Give the backbone structure.
Amino acid sequence: MKLTMQLQLLPTADHKAQLLETMERFNEAATFAAKAGFEHKVYGQVAIHGLAYREIRERFGLSAQMAVRAIAKAVECFQRDKTVCPTFKPRGAICYDQRVLSFKGLTAVSLWAMTGRLLIPFVCGGYQKERQGRIKGQADLVYRGGKFYLLCTIELPEGSPIEPTDVIGVDLGIVNVATDSTGEVFSGAEVQRNRRRRATARKQHQRKGSKRAKRKLKQMAGRQRRFQAKTNHEISKKLVAKAKALGVGIAMEDLSGIRDRVEPTVGRRFRRQFGNWGFAQLGLFVEYKAKLAGVPVIQVDPRNSSRTCSKCGHCEKGNRPDQATFRCRHCGYSTNADLNAAENLRIRGLGHLVNGPEKSPVGPVLPVRRTERQSPLL
Ligand SMILES: [Zn+2]
């Protein structure tokens, strides 16, 4: 399975200037190559090479391999769309391959620049160290917010798939980011605190509207995003590790449409947080980590999972007297509301395992008393 690993480079001021210069020349050359190809209606590497290679070498001062890479950047663009002639941003990505990029030990990388090879250290934590041997082929050098990053493709082996006989149901919520059917709760408290604090500060900055305030806002958005990603990584890692240890699958809802579906029991303030929360990201993280671990993920329909009794199947809005509580009006079963929902997702996941996704019913097959109109929101 292919993943992208990001390495932050730590160039000296001098090296930074040289990298920027290289980036600009490279992108000018790519734009030139695209124009040459477009004018002659040729879009392949070999054809454009014949037209533009010599001139690129002379005009832009690129090495042989870098000229090839610049042409490749134009060709890649044509592979998607031949009807427009692309113009590349001066500081767009450079795609390096092994001939112009090599790792020196665990902490530095050697990159081709206009002025020669540069040896540049990068930030390397345990995660990067472990995976460095798996870097394959090419890496993109990108410049973002004043910093250089290398985006490397790594190839990780997928785990041999587990044949599960059971699944863990995972319910996602606002107060508790995730609750699983074994009763473990992954709290969103810290995330919420963090978000509220930032929302207040954000309002103050928005009122000011100055240039400085705008910069500050951008910074804050970045921090929130990173914090969220970190939390999502932690939660998904724990969930997948647990499923793997138990030899079971994971049942969770399909997260592609999550923003459209907010529980009506939740106030407006929470809705804003919900919309912003990276549930879709959490879903993606669970999916790829599960794939690496060989843990199957079953997407189930979450409708009514929070108002249906996981013991007797009775579905009624009144089963959920408040945000935290589930109390069945039919059989009296009472438990934490998120745990009940997680258990329902587990039951549905099991249904998929036994019957396959098409045949399995939504929820336990028991008579539903239609005491009210079923809200499509739930
Ligand atoms: Zn019940």
The longest helix spans residues 211-246. Residues 309, 311-312, 314, 328, 330-331, 333 surround zinc ion (CB under 6 Å). The chain has two domains: 2-155, 167-186+236-355.
